[in-house]
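SEQUENCE-TO-STRUCTURE ENTRY
===========================

Backbone structure tokens: a row of integers, each naming the local backbone shape at its residue.

Task: work out the structure tokens from the sequence, keeping to the layout shown below.
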Amino acid sequence: FLMQNSSMMKKTLKCIRSSLPEMASVLLLLALHLCVFTMSGMLLFIGEKQGDGQDRERLIYFRNLPEALTSLLVLLTTANNPDVMIPAYSKNRAYAIFFIVFTLIGSLFLMNLLTAIIYNQFRGYLMKSFQTSLFRRRLGARAAYEVLSSVTAEGEAHPREVGVRPRDFLQVLQRVQLDGSHTQAVMEKVRSYGGDLLSAGEFQKLFNEFDKRVIKEPPPRPEYPSPFLRRAQIAFSHRYFDYLGNFIALGNLVSISVFLVIDADVLPEDRDDFVLGILNCAFILYYVLELLLKVFALGLPGYLAHSSNVFDGLLTAVLLVLEISTLAVYRFPHPGWKPETLGLLSLWDMARLVNSLIVVRFLRIIPSLKLMAVVASTILDLIRNMRAFGGILVVVYYVFAILGISLFRGVIVAPGNGSLSPDNSSAPCGSFEQLEYWPNNFDDFAALITLWNVMVVNNWQVFLDAYRRYSGPWSKIYFVLWWLVSSVVWVNL
């Protein structure tokens, strides 16, 4: 459904499919690299006597061909480095050369080469796809120009010029369902040409307005008759007033940090929140005052026209409601302020919620710092432009989650909470059982979280080993395919 209703997703998927042959060549070279070093490792780490470093290396990581291949595949992602080489390295330091050479060739050369090929091929196919789309749009615009110019020629007995009358174009434009802001921009552009006929070049340029991002002008500020109010309006709308608000917010954040450090070793029921409660109350009162002064200076429409003000105002309103609720339930702060829990939340929970919102509110400084604002806007543009990739990833996640539920549902059963449940202290260190990875299963759509943890490739060898033991060695194919699709292909794109 998602793929059929998004032209950009279909275009992106087509480009990925066109890039697969070039990716396959590097993946084949990567597989050859794995096979050569796997066979070399199995021949190299054959212990001469029981208990030496080579023997432990063989028994742990190179016991058989599938185990050796899995160990080096995980090492390719550096998830088990340096664990995989420690047994042999403890016996002889020269064995480190084997693992260093493998990592240099595989992780630093071949994986980066794969990234470069994916980028280059995909960029070329995607650019060609965009050029084709642009050509089709210009061809359609040219066809529309020819039709409208023929209508113009039919209305004149002896046409002296070839072109499109602006009123004919506007009549057609009003019948088409388009975005209102873009339609208004095109109409203003047409009116700027006057009553002259539109040439083919001018007609094509009109469609460039649809590619421009609409920037809305802020509403006009309120006008006050009093000179004192006008001076106050200028002062409270100045950027220095924003700097003062940021400085106050920083002071609030510092005060919370200081009390977190002081009370780090104190139990919640033994903490005295008197001073921090007074400080937070004073800071929140300032935030409310700042909000009212900005509304006075900019007007309510002007205040709401800026997304940073909406973010700031919303959090300030929530903080005010929480503070009023705290005062209504637990009264005003006083020394030894540790009342019993009343209502839905305890005083400690209310304080944590207020402090968390204050920390989030500190993000308001981003628009005030130019370099940080540029970085933040770039990240937002990347997120906006990567919607097609995100849609494809959602589809891939869904497909692999359904497949994982079909294959591994009920395979791993978590121990009960009773006293008869087995103790994980006897489990090997770093194993699925010892790390208590029981929530990472495929019993329901929590499989999405399991797939995310594997995609990050941190400790993904734990999942490979656990599902091999509980389900069978063929389960590794599923996880390796997911790693290739998600971490290697999609993340590189």
Remarks:
- The chain has a mean pLDDT of 78.
